[in-house]
């Protein structure tokens, strides 16, 4: 059993308003950290005293430092924000062994700047994802909904546009529900595919504001397009995001990846467990991951349920579905093995009967 320790963390000169933000209403933030990490935290003035096992105390110390950083931006820290900080700290620890030395370098300094403010990735996996987007021409973000893969891709695009590193942003999504045969729908192209691109629009509105986004779309600096409309184009000096890529075919994915021109970069996001293609149709995302996995210039970041940054109940729901799917795959494999054994036994029995007749 790990020995209990006490550690003191001080924040010299902290204002009363920032201190209130760190504590939360009725010390609610401290209570949440205590409950989640199984530690005891007390404070007097600018000093916090943490008691517990060494690993938990170190995590609690790190969380207090993060809370202090959060109150520098906004003196009020919500319970939801604290939940994400706690969750991110756990993910950081789980991922440390997976990181190369190069990926460790500068990871804490990864952030994105938009017109509406700075966006800080939550947790080491999100930071690694953003770092790879900013450093690579083609990046993949694979994982369940709620892990921030699409939101951060849009944020990176906005960041690069604001710094004049690219000339335009293209948002692409396969409109699989309409079979990408959009001609029969009313309205212009943008209006026809708006429902399929709504999550991307929502992120843009949050980062740039509605009026700015509308002006950029009018000037074609931000462009929306169904995947089928990308054929034959070469995209130079652009940031292209292909969302819901699990609903592409292998042919569509190859077409998209070969559209990249000079000074451009592409981010492909998707969840290979949520394919909406017709039964029997191979996902272009799953196929591409096997084809390009050995190309060193292309980076793939895989997210898991532990990376979900929505309501904490969402993480539990994702984990429950993942567990259910794993169990169904196991039962299916057992059923196939049992059928195969019965078939082999029947063949052996028939062969034995034939030999007896001979």
TrEMBL record:
An example Gene Ontology molecular-function term: ATP binding
Pfam family of the protein (one): PhoH
GO CC annotations, alphabetized: cytosol
Localization per Swiss-Prot or TrEMBL: Cytoplasm
Domain PhoH-like protein: 119-322
Coiled coil region boundaries: none
Family: Belongs to the PhoH family.
Name of this chain's protein: PhoH-like protein
């Amino acid at each position: 059993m790990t020995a209990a320790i006490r550690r003191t963390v001080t924040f010299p000169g902290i204002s009363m308003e920032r201190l209130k933000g760190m504590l939360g209403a009725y010390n609610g933030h401290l209570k949440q950290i205590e409950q989640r990490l199984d530690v005891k935290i007390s404070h007097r003035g600018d000093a916090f005293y943490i008691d517990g096992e060494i690993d938990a105390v170190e995590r609690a110390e790190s969380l207090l430092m993060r809370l202090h950083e959060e109150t520098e931006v906004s003196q009020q820290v919500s319970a939801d924000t604290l939940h994400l900080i706690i969750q991110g700290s756990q993910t950081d620890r789980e991922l440390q062994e997976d990181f190369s030395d190069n990926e460790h370098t500068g990871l804490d300094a990864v952030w994105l700047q938009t017109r509406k403010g700075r966006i800080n990735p939550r947790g080491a996996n999100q930071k690694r994802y953003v770092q790879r987007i900013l450093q690579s021409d083609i990046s993949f973000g694979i994982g369940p909904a709620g892990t921030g893969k699409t939101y951060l891709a849009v944020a990176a695009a906005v960041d690069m546009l604001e710094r004049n590193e690219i000339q335009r942003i293209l948002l692409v999504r396969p409109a699989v529900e309409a079979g990408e045969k959009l001609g029969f729908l009313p309205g212009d192209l943008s209006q026809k595919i708006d429902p399929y691109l709504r999550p991307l629009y929502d992120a843009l509105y949050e980062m740039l504001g509605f009026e700015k986004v509308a002006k950029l779309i009018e000037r074609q600096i931000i462009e929306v397009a169904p995947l089928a409309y990308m054929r034959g184009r070469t995209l130079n000096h652009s940031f292209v995001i292909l969302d819901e890529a699990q609903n592409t075919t292998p042919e569509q994915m190859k077409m998209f990846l070969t559209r990249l021109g000079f000074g451009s970069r592409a981010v492909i996001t998707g969840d290979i467990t949520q394919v909406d293609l017709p039964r029997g149709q191979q996902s272009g995302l799953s196929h591409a991951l096997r084809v390009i996995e050995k190309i060193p210039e292309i980076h793939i970041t895989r997210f898991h349920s532990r990376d979900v940054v929505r309501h904490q109940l969402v993480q539990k729901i994702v984990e429950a579905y993942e567990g259910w799917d794993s169990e169904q795959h196991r039962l299916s494999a057992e059923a196939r093995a049992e059928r195969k054994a019965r078939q082999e036994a029947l063949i052996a029995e028939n062969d034995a009967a034939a030999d007896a007749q001979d």
